[in-house]
């Protein structure tokens, strides 16, 4: 199953038709992610009667799980037949299935990777491209860096090239600091803790998705903390250079940009997501100048935080 294809849907529908399996998977995941907060934050009538929204939500998730399990089962069968133990010969889902000894956990991780990976990175890329298009000076810095790394735009991109794209990565981090695509992170406490005078017992689910209404809900709101002067110098100024080593003397809390969470429950697809965004920016900005000549877009909070409106870019060949 092409996770990367699903995650870059912000660039257009391509050849997918509405009734195709990939498009229906995309639609099901988007519906689930964008309505979970509505179901949890509003009066939970669905707990007592099958409301239209709840019914559609369950139908979408059942379809999503049914199709994804088909491909996960196929990946499991391929693993049994493969003689090679080299990770490079395995797909991303196959690597999860191969390294996780508990089959149930492996299936949950694979499902989670596909579900969360469809919409989040697409929205993150939308935000990054919009900021690039509306900040021409910053885009020029990214371009000049990529020009040195890839004098010939047709050169195959390698990890060695990406390791040198320091400013490009700093730009991405600064977008996540000011416009965090994921609005918050949640955790289950391992020990009894006091937060701002409130005693929170261990084992209580602390989750920004508000999955269980019967538990105490606490959020680490990255969309807020990244813009607080207590943690970042000149927090209201967009400045990618703050993430460079030369700026290490500036006040910058390491958690000011925390789009993937932290610790044991950090986002499973972090490295894959970072790689996707870096490759996209390197190939796109090296070859095209990106411009936006329309009304400024406001950011909107749904399940995520992203520009609200059509991204109508002008792409000029460099």
TrEMBL record:
Write the record's keywords in alphabetical order, separated by commas. Answer: Heme, Iron, Metal-binding, Monooxygenase, Oxidoreductase
Name the needed cofactors: heme
One Gene Ontology molecular-function label: monooxygenase activity
The answer to whether keyword Lipid biosynthesis applies is no
List residues binding heme.
Answer: 267
Q: Which family does the entry's similarity section mention? A: Belongs to the cytochrome P450 family.
Would you tell me the protein name for this molecule? Cytochrome P450 301a1, mitochondrial
Per the UniProt record, the lineage of the source organism begins with: Eukaryota, Metazoa, Ecdysozoa, Arthropoda, Hexapoda
């Amino acid at each position: 199953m092409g996770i990367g294809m699903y995650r870059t849907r912000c660039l257009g529908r391509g050849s997918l038709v509405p009734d195709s399996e990939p498009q229906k998977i995309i639609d099901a995941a988007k519906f689930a992610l964008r309505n979970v907060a509505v179901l949890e934050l509003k009066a939970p009538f669905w707990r007592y009667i099958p409301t239209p929204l709840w019914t559609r939500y369950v139908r979408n998730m059942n379809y999503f799980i049914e199709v994804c399990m088909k491909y996960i089962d196929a990946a499991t069968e391929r693993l049994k037949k493969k003689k090679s133990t080299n990770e490079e010969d395995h797909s991303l889902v196959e690597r999860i299935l191969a390294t996780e000894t508990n089959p149930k956990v492996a299936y949950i991780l694979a499902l989670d990777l596909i579900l969360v990976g469809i919409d989040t990175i697409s929205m993150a890329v939308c935000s990054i491209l919009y900021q690039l298009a509306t900040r021409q000076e910053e885009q020029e810095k990214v371009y000049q860096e990529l020009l040195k790394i890839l004098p010939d735009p047709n050169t195959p991109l390698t990890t060695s090239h990406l390791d040198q794209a320091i400013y490009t990565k700093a730009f991405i981090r600064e977008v996540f600091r000011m416009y965090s695509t994921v609005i918050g992170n949640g955790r289950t406490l391992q020990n009894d803790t006091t937060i701002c005078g409130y005693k929170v017992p261990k084992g209580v689910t602390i989750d920004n998705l508000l999955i269980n209404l019967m538990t105490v809900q606490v959020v680490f709101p990255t969309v807020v903390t990244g813009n607080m002067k207590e943690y970042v110098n000149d927090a209201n100024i967009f400045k990618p250079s703050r993430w460079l080593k030369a700026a290490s003397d500036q006040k910058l809390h390491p958690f000011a940009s925390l789009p993937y969470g932290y610790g044991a429950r950090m986002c499973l697809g972090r490295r894959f997501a970072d790689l996707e965004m870096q490759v996209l920016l390197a190939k796109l900005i090296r070859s095209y100048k990106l411009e936006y000549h329309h009304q400024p877009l406001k950011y909107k909070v749904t399940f995520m935080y992203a520009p609200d409106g059509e991204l109508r870019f002008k792409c000029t060949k460099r």
